[in-house]
Amino acid sequence: GSSLEPEECSMEPPAVPEEEVPVTVAPGPVGCQLFGYVGIEAVLDQMKIKTMKTGFEFNIMVVGQSGLGKSTMVNTLFKSKVSRKSSQPGQEERIPKTVQLQSITHVIEEKGVKMKLTVTDTPGFGDQINNENCWDPIIKYINEQYERYLREEILITRKRKIPDTRVHGCVYFVPPTGHWLRPLDLEFMRRLSKIVNVVPVIAKADTLTLEERAEFKQRIQEDLKTHAISVYPQEDFDQDPEDRALNDRIREKIPFAVVGADQEHQVNGKRVLGRKTKWGIIEVENPAHCEFPLLQDLLIRRSHLQDLKDITHNVHYESYRVRRLNESNRP
């Protein structure tokens, strides 16, 4: 269209448009061969030194009825007295009327690596005659930790390192009944698996024979599949074939049949953790006796500790963050 303003005259000659030269980029090799030492591998050492200085955080929750050995199991996992015990020795703790949550934080150091460990116990869960909605305080606590992290994250001036109190893993203790999962177990894992990583274990597995243990595990796996309950490690979050192959082997063993003990005994000239019975000593860290080493590898010793934190941040917390931000944007 024509313009209503007068055109400005220019004394410069009109510019000649340059010809476009096609640019071709040759695909480079996937791995470039170096002529000498560059020092890229030093990045791993720098990350290791920085992590050792700052340390890291790991928050775990244990859920189950009283008398299933939750405190003993946590003490066995971390080789120290980190879980809740009675304030007065020899005096049994009273069962609370409602579900109460108690958190204890310790700093554990091993070979220069510091870990701030927070153990959250849930006394009173499943101990009442009427256990309706007994999971509500637990869900409320987990969401409160997400909310606390979200409030720190949306500040204009944020901290360089936000304190992480989010629950990275929830170990659920199944009573060794040898039958099917109870409705309480199914409902709890169905609700909690959507907001946190749930790892089910069979508590006090030494009360079952090997045949009973195998049948009980198979029934639990069928219950979880029938009710579409996704426990950790979830199939949807496997990133590559190697992770899928490793997690498939772990999923075949879930729930782990574990035995906890915080006392050492002499076996063949070695001091081992175990439970002494009339027929012998049940070695906790012996894979032939129980599956406690598998649980320890899953939670601490292998790559799954960082994976628990990554899934908590990238999946469960992200879902909570999106839901809260959508609620705040509604008129």
From TrEMBL:
One of its GO terms (biological process) is cell division. Residues 54-327 form the Septin-type G domain. InterPro entries: G_SEPTIN_dom, P-loop_NTPase, Septin, Septin3. One of its GO terms (molecular function) is GTP binding. It comes from the Eukaryota. It is found in: Cytoplasm, Cytoskeleton. The keyword Hydrolase does not apply. Its main location: cytoplasm. One of its GO terms (cellular component) is cytoskeleton. PROSITE patterns: G_SEPTIN. Keywords: Cell cycle, Cell division, Cytoplasm, Cytoskeleton, GTP-binding, Nucleotide-binding. SUPFAM superfamilies: P-loop containing nucleoside triphosphate hydrolases. Signal peptide: none annotated. It holds the Pfam family Septin. This is SEP12 protein. The gene is Sept12.
